[in-house]
Design a protein that fits this description.
There is one protein chain. It contains eleven helices and no strands. It is mostly helical and about 450 residues long. Helix 3 crosses helix 8, helix 5 runs antiparallel to helix 7 and helix 10 crosses helix 11.
Length: about 450
């Protein structure tokens, strides 16, 4: 039991690694790096302050951890396997016994209190009758095992996260609020112990400076408020003047509207008079236009009959010319179709020859890759000979193709000339026929 209870002294101090005394800030290193047995050790006052700070920090750490442990007891009770793996068998039996006592008030030592006994008989089993002195022993047992600390810290962290997620809508949890307040108190105590007298004095000086600056700002705000008030009064006077001006202009506008109404009525009467005169003139002009319309219709019918006769003659001539032109076009299409077949044959032959040349070039390239290492001297002569043959073949083939194409071009030109001559003859014949028809 004594060996396990010593675990309460093994809790690390958060202050020892981060806190410094006032003398350490003025040029002396921290107590962890000093050897107080040497001549240059810190003064007894600094050493005592450091020890007292460590003691206070350990007390606060112990209180915070015990508070966390008390908050986690309902959850730890459900973690039977975890407790069984950490606690000794004797302590585990004590815990089970304490749990049974706490859960069943009939076996509680509070039965020694007659008033509590009377309350239980009447059916009151509230919290005051469920308090058990053995809970202190339960906290002692839990606190004596450092292995429970990570589990407790994890549970508290989950509680804090769930508590923070609800935000302003969360319900107040008294135990967790107390823990947060206690942790905040510990941080304030550590910060106060780390603060030196010089720092406190400097903070006071800064506060006084800020107060003086605040007074100056308040005076300026007062001055600006008075200036703004004067400007508001001037603005209100200006608005009154503008309101009077607007009222005056509205009266003038009403007078102008009345004058405009009188002028508009006069103009409407003049417009009605002009409209009556214009209507009478329009009736006279309409009668004259009707007479002209009858005369124009008669002229139009005579001209239309003449034009219909001319159109009939022109249609007959056009049909005759189109028939002759269509026969010439059919003849031209037949002749050009035969020539197109020849052109397609020549084109196909040219493509075959070109493909053969490409195949020969590919074969030559493959042969070059295979025989270059073995026939380096002969390849230049052979390559030159084959290149000359290929160029000669291509030149001859190109010459033949060009000659054939040129012959076709000459034949097409001759055909076009012949068609143009025929067209001119047809136009001349048509002109002669028109002249004869005009003379008749």
């Amino acid at each position: 039991m004594d060996a396990q209870s010593s675990g309460t002294l093994q809790s690390p101090s958060t202050f020892s690694g981060s806190s410094k005394t006032g003398s350490s800030r003025s040029g002396v290193s921290s107590a962890e790096d000093q050897d107080f047995t040497k001549d240059n050790a810190a003064s007894p006052i600094d050493l005592e302050c450091h020890i007292q700070a460590e003691r206070i920090t350990k007390i606060l750490d112990g209180a915070v951890y015990k508070t966390k442990l008390a908050l986690c007891l309902p959850n730890l009770v459900q973690e039977y396997r975890t407790l069984n793996s950490i606690l000794s068998p004797q302590h585990m039996e004590d815990l089970v016994f304490i749990f049974e006592q706490y859960d069943n008030p009939l076996f509680s030592t509070s039965l020694l209190n007659m008033a509590a006994m009377e309350d239980i008989k009447t059916g009151d089993i509230s919290l005051k009758n469920r308090l058990n002195p053995e809970l202190g022993h339960l906290m002692y047992i839990m606190n004596s095992y450092p292995a429970l600390r990570p589990i407790v810290e994890e549970m508290i962290q989950e509680m804090k996260i769930e508590y923070a997620e609800f935000g302003e809508t969360r319900q107040r949890v008294t135990g967790l609020d107390y823990l947060l307040t206690l942790e905040h108190f510990r941080e304030l105590m550590i910060r106060q112990m780390e603060t030196t007298a010089a720092e406190e004095l400097a903070a006071k000086f800064n506060t006084r400076k800020l107060e003086a600056s605040n007074d100056n700002l308040l005076a300026k705000i007062k001055e600006y408020t008075e200036t703004l008030k004067d400007e508001n009064e001037r603005f209100e006077e200006t608005m009154k003047m503008k309101s009077a001006m607007i009222a005056k202009l509205e009266k003038e506008l009403a007078m102008l509207n009345q004058e405009a109404d009188v002028k508009l009525k006069k103009k409407i009467l003049d417009s009605d008079r002009q409209m009556v005169l214009s209507t009478r003139a329009h009736i006279v002009k309409n009668e004259m236009l009707k007479e002209e319309e009858l005369e124009s219709k008669e002229n139009y019918e005579n001209l239309l009959r003449t034009h219909l006769i001319d159109e009939k003659n022109q249609r007959a001539r056009r049909f005759k010319v189109e028939t002759q032109l269509l026969s010439w076009l059919q003849k031209y299409d037949l002749e050009m179709g035969d020539k197109q077949v020849d052109l397609d044959d020549y084109t196909e032959k040219y493509e075959d020859e070109l493909r053969k040349c490409e195949e020969l070039e590919e074969k030559l390239a493959e042969q070059d890759k295979e025989y270059i290492p073995l026939m380096a001297e002969r390849e230049a002569e052979y390559h030159q000979e084959m290149t000359e043959k290929m160029n000669k073949f291509l030149l001859e083939h190109a010459a033949r193709v060009i000659q054939n194409a040129w012959r076709e071009v000459l034949a097409n030109r001759a055909e076009k000339k012949r068609l143009k001559k025929l067209q001119k003859k047809m136009q001349a014949a048509a002109a002669a026929a028109e002249k004869k028809g005009g003379k008749k």
